[in-house]
Design brief:
alpha+beta; three-stranded antiparallel sheet; 1 helix
């Protein structure tokens, strides 16, 4: 299973079609993981 993103709604899902609007979703795994890593790094730097 890959994480996917709806371009119209900007929500993340595991489905091929968005459950909110029904549009096709695109593969978003790399970007999602990259954003989470950056968020974690910022949090660690702020709290040290």
């Amino acid at each position: 299973m890959k994480l996917r993103k709806c371009k119209s709604c900007n929500i993340y899902t595991l489905k091929d079609n968005c459950s909110k609007c029904g549009e096709k979703t695109i593969d978003a795994h790399y970007k999602f993981v990259r954003e989470k890593i950056l968020e974690n790094k910022k949090y660690i730097l702020q709290n040290n």
